[in-house]
Specification:
Helix content is 51%, strand content 8%. It is α+β, with helices and mostly antiparallel strands. Strands 6-7-8-9-10 form a 5-stranded antiparallel beta sheet. Helix 1 crosses helix 2 and helix 2 crosses helix 14. The longest helix has 21 residues. The protein is globular and about 45 Å long.
């Protein structure tokens, strides 16, 4: 299987090199830190594993998922932050704990590996049950769980990402013949909260993720999704560079730009999507990795790091736009079960 290619933007050879750059950071245990010597969190670890699957590094991707299986805690969660196997923050983020469902279903779509799906099912089931323990009756999900239980604070971008994770978990469950009607009810309630109850979430409208994640996570699509994206386009998009992470900072970030690309693809805006993927290529390093961000008023890359998850977001965006792998439509909702509103 060849890597994706976006003609005039990034070649298949270049993206294969990007996959190799991510694999080079992976530790012998399977853990994928942000960068050499950096820390690891479950969400970004999974994002990197997905890029490995897309670029043909299937063995490395499976090692990454086996690391999740081996490090999952008894309650279904993972620590918020580890470094080379040492826990640095033992809290649990519900969005982080839900995201392995997306990665596992993504790898199953690409490889068709039945043994892998069966091996990872208990991991996904336990993680999703943990996450739903923090769901409110209205549908929103608290972002974290500590010794005292859920935090009592739901974040829009995190809950929107969990919406995508729940749909992927349902797809895996149906694929394996393990229907989960409780999960289906949970995703319906979460979708309604995301669409109809903005008051349920702590306001963080300065951040671009709160702008596009309800679209990316699948809760808001069609004309409503297009209206949402266009309403704040000028607040976040910087011509020729990508998008701001925060609306009042002169700082564009590669991963957020590529996630916007995925959201644009999901609402049928391919021209805008291609433009944004092209715009962020100034962050590419000659070795195939990608710098996290760029402060355009100072003409400086910041932070001074080439993050695996930024590179991974580029690969996933290119796969979606090029329709290359069997999993290219995972963020459009292809191959995901329909959930009634």
């Amino acid at each position: 299987m060849s890597a994706p290619e976006i003609v005039g933007v990034v070649s298949a050879e270049a993206l294969a090199q990007t996959g190799k750059a991510i694999a080079a950071v992976q530790l012998p245990t399977g853990e994928i830190p942000w960068f050499p010597g950096g820390h690891t969190d479950p969400w970004d670890h999974v994002e990197s594993a997905m890029a490995l699957s897309v670029t043909g590094f299937h063995h490395e991707a499976e090692r990454a998922y086996d690391w999740l299986r081996e490090t999952q805690r008894a309650d279904g969660s993972w620590p918020l932050q580890v470094r080379d196997g040492v826990v640095e923050d033992d809290g649990a983020d519900t969005n982080y704990c839900a995201y392995p469902a997306v990665g596992v279903w993504h790898h199953v779509l690409i490889t068709g590996d039945a043994a892998f799906a069966s091996r990872m099912w208990p991991v996904v089931r336990s993680a999703i049950d943990f996450v739903l323990g923090a769901q409110h009756e209205r549908g929103e999900i608290d972002w974290g769980v500590g010794e005292g239980g859920p935090t009592g604070e739901a974040l829009l971008s995190g809950s929107a990402s969990i919406h995508q994770s729940l749909r992927c978990a349902l797809a895996l469950a149906e694929h394996l013949g393990h229907p989960q009607p409780g999960w289906a009810d949970a995703v319906r309630r979460l979708g309604r909260a995301l669409r109809e109850h903005p008051e349920a979430f702590t306001p963080k409208s300065r951040y671009s993720m709160d702008w596009y994640y309800p679209v990316l996570g699948g809760a808001v699509r069609g004309e409503a999704g297009r209206r949402r994206i266009l309403a704040r386009w000028d607040d976040f998009v910087v011509d020729g560079l990508g998008i701001r992470c925060v609306d009042d900072h002169p700082w564009v970030t590669g991963a957020e730009t590529c996630e916007l690309v995925l959201a644009l693809d999901a609402i049928g805006e391919p021209e805008r999507a291609h433009q944004q993927l092209a715009a962020m290529q100034h962050l590419r390093d000659p070795d195939g990795s990608y710098w996290t961000g760029y402060v355009f008023t100072d003409d400086e890359r910041w932070p001074v790091e080439r993050s695996t998850w930024t590179a991974a977001a580029v690969v996933l965006a290119a796969d979606a736009l090029s329709r290359t792998t069997p999993a290219n439509g995972i963020f459009r909702g292809d191959d995901l079960p329909a959930v009634e509103a």
